[in-house]
Amino acid sequence: MDGLTEKRYERQIQLWGVQGQTSLRNSKVCLINADATGTEALKNLILAGVGSFTIVDDTTVKEVDYGNNFFIAEGKLDHSRAECTYELLQELNPEVTGNFISEGVLTILKTEPTFFDKFSLVIGANLTERILQYVGRDLWDKNIPLILVFAYGMIAYVRIVHALHTVVQGHVDNLPHDFQCDAPFPALKKLITTTDLDSLDSTQLRDVPYLLIILFYLKKWLELHSGRPPETRIEKDEFKKLIQEGGKKFSEGNEVNFEEAFSFAFYAWRRSEIPSNVLEVFRHPCCDSLTKKSDTFWFLARAVRDFTFYDNNGRLPLRGVLPDMTAGTANYSQLLLLYQQEAVKHASMVSARVHNLLLRCGLPEDYIDDEEIKTICENSATLKCFEGTSLQHEEARLDDFNVQPAEVFSWYFCLKAARFFQRRYGHSPGTGTSNYLGDLLTLKSCLAEVLNEMKSNRKIEDEYLIELCRFGASEIHSVAACASGIAAQEGIKVLTRQFYPLNNALIVDTVTGQAVSFRV
Amino acid sequence: MMTEAQEPSQKRWAHLRKILERPGPFCHPEFEPSPEIMDFIVTSCKILVVGAGGLGCELLKDLALMGFKQIHVIDMDTIDLSNLNRQFLFRQKDIGQSKAKVAAEFINRRIPGCQVTPHFCKIQDYDEGFYRSFHIIVCGLDSIVARRWINGMIMSLLCYEDGVLDNSTIIPLVDGGTEGFKGNARVIVPGNSACVECTLDLYPPQVTYPLCTIANTPRLPEHCIEYVKVVMWPKENPFNAALDGDDTQHVGWIYEKSLERAAQFNITGVTYRLVQGVVKNIIPAVASTNAVIAGVCATEVFKIATSCCLPLNNYMVFNDVDGIYTYTYTAERKDNCVVCSQVPQTLLIPDATKMKLKDLIQTLCEDETYQMKNPGLTTTVGGKNKTLYISTIKSIEERTRDNLNKSLVELGLKDGSEIMVADATTPMTLVFCLKFQSSDVEMN
Asked: Is the ipTM beyond the 0.85 threshold?
C-alpha cells in the first residue's frame, strides 16, 4: 500500500489494520437498485476503499429521485439511473473502479446465471419480494453475502442473508488474559521456581509484575493444598489475604503492583477454558471435512483445533501478549519475553499442521501465508462462525415474543405485510394520491396472512398499519442514510472478516429514535 | 420570485410530502398536516450546522435532501488527505482549503436552490446576534470544549420573565458525536431537557500514562514514544517549532528517538505507525458511523422543524463493534446545573485561610462538575473590581501571577463573596458565591 493510500485510509486502518484494508481492496461489490438507500450504502463502501463496484438498475431517473438521491446530477430525467448514479459515485474515490448495467437483475440472471459469482458482497435496496426470491436463493447457494436495506417512511429494516460467515479477529472488548496460571509452561515454571519474593527487599518487591506475584503465591498455595487451587469462597479470600500480607513489607502499606495482584488474584483459580464460540467452530462439520475447495478459515481452525487437543492439553495457542503491569522494565520484559517465545513455539506447531492439512488436500504449503497463521494464533479465542437464515426459512425460525422493545419490533411484521401487499397488488399500500387509507383493510388482511404463515399469535395495533399507509412507501433521505450506514458497516465486517456481524436483522424506528436487533 | 428548483410543490419532494401532508397516529399531538410545512422548510427555516467534517458533510447532504435551503455551516479547519475516507464533499484537489467553504460549494452545486453559507472561523468568533438567528442548531463536533461552548451560548439566549421561560427564545440543539464504531445523538431543548453540562459525566477524562512510568520504568513501546514526545521534544526542541503530527520530519525524529529509548530498555514494538498513533492521538473514524449518526440527527432536525413526530427523548447511544447495539434513554437535567439551571452556584471553601487561589483554580479544573480548562477569575472587593487571575492574556497573567499563591482571605475574599469565572468551555461568565465553612476558632 503506498503512502498516499495509507494516509487516506489512516483513520480506518486504526480499526481493521492493513490486513483488513487489503481485504477491502480485493473485494467486488454489487448494488441492486440505485435509489437513495442503495446509493448511500454504496457510497460508504466506496469511501472505505472496496476494489470495485457494479450498479444494477433498470429504471430511468424520475423527478422524485432528485428529492432524495444525492448521486444524480441535474438535467438527467429519463436517463438510465444506473449510469447517472455510477458517474457521481465513481468520482468519490479514484482508487475504486466501477461500472453499471442498465438492466433488471432478473433479466441478467436469465442470460447469465453465473453473474453474481464474481462478487464478494451484494447489496439490495428496497427490493420487491419477487426479486428477493430469485436473488436470495442464488446467493445463498453460493454463500455470497447479501445485505438487504429497506427504508420505508420513518422506519428502516436491515437484513443480512449469508449462509455461513466465519470470523477470526472478533476484536472482543475485555477478553480475559490468557495467563494460563493453571498450567504454566515449562519456561514459566522455571521462572516461578527461581522467584523468591520473601527474600526481596521493598525496593526489589516494587519491581515485580503482578502476574509473577500471583504465580508465586499460587505455587505456595498448591504446595500446602495438595496441588488444588483455591476453590471455595473462603479459600479464595484466604489466597487474596496471602497476597495482601506479602505486600505489607512496604512501610506505607501495599504498593501498586501488590494492589494489582490483589484485584487480579482470580487469575490464580481461573481455568483456561475454550470459549463456547470457539468450540462451536471446532465442532462444525466444515472443520472435519477439509477439501481443496474449503475456505482457508477451516484449514486454520482445524490446525488450531488439532494443536489444542493433541499438542497442548486442551489449551488454545498463547496470544503472546501481556497487558501492562506496574513493574520494573527488566522484570516485565523478562516475563513478556517468556510468553512471546512460548507463543512463537505454538505458532510454529500450528503452522506445521496447516501445511500438512494443505498438502493432504492437494494444495501448496504456501497457500496460506504466515501472517494469517500468526493472526489466528493471536485471536484463537475470538473465532466464531455465523450460520445464517435463508429468506425462504425466515418464518420457521422466528421466536418473536422476547424481542424488546416490542413496540419497535412490531414494525418488522408490518414491513413484511407491506411487501406482501406489494407482491399481490403490484403497488405498495398508501401510494395512491388520494384516499391513501383506502388500502388499510386490505393491508390488515395481508398482515393476518403473514402472521399466520409465521405461526405467530402476535397482536399488532391498527395504528401501525395506518402509519404504514401514511408512509406510502416513501423513501426519506435521512432515514435511508442512517440505515445504509449500518448496512455498509455490516458489509465491511463481512469483507474484512473482522468484528462480529449483525446476526441477522435490525429495525430502526426514527419516530422514537430506537432500534432493535434480532435473529430471524 | 423562486426558481423552479425552489418550488416546494415540485414533485421532487413527493416522499417528504407524504409525511407532512398526511396525519397519522404516531405524529406529534400538535401536528397539523399541510403543504405549508414544506414551504416553511424550503423557504424560511434556518439551520446552523456546526462542523464540516465527518458528521458535518453528512448533515449538510441530509438536510439539503430533506428540503432545507437556508443552511449555514461553520468550521475553522482545512482539508487534509486523511479526511477523504469519510468527508465525501472534499476531493484531493481541495486539500488545504477551508472545509466550510468547499462543503458549501459542493452542496450548492449538487442541490439546486440550496443556499449553504460557509463560515471559515471559530465558533467563538460569533456572538449571540449570530446564533440567535437560527431556528435549530445541529452539531457535528469532535471537541467537548466546543460542545460546551455552543451549549452555553444557546442557554444564554434564554429569557426568563418572573421565572417563566419565554418559549420564543428556545433554540433546539441536536448534537451528534462519533468515534470509530461508536456514536451518539441527542436532542437538547434549552430550559426543558438536560443540556450538555448536565451530563458532563458522560465524557470521562482522557487516560494518560503516569509520568513516573514514562520516565523511570517504561514497559510498553507506547511509554517510550510518550517519553520522547513529552520530555525530550520540549527539552531538545529539534525543529524550533511545536510538535506537528502531520509533519513527517517531526514524526521521523520521534520515531528515531523512540527506537533508541526502547533499545535502552530492551523493549520491542516501536513502529512508525505506533509512533504516529501516539503523537497524533489518532481517533479512528469511518464513513458509516458518521452516516448513521448524522442520519439520526438530520431526522431529528426535520421532526423538530415540522413537528411531524415527537423528537427523540433524548439520548441515543450506538455501537456496531459486535452486532448492533443501541440504547435510548432520557438524560436527566441536573437541578443545580452550572449552565442551564437558574440556581445560583456556590463553592464550599473548607478553610479560606489555607486555601490558595491556585487550589481554587485546580478545583474548578479537576472537579467533575466543572471540568474547566483555563478559568479566569475576577471579583469585587470593597466595591471595586479586582482581577484575581487570568492566564489567557499575557500582561494580565504577569500582573496577577503572584495571587496564585495567596490565600483567599489574603486576597480580600469573604464568606458570601462572588467570583466571576470565564473559561473556554462557556461563552457566559459564571458567577460563584463563596461559602466559607467556619472553624470553631473563628466562631469565637
From this structure: yes
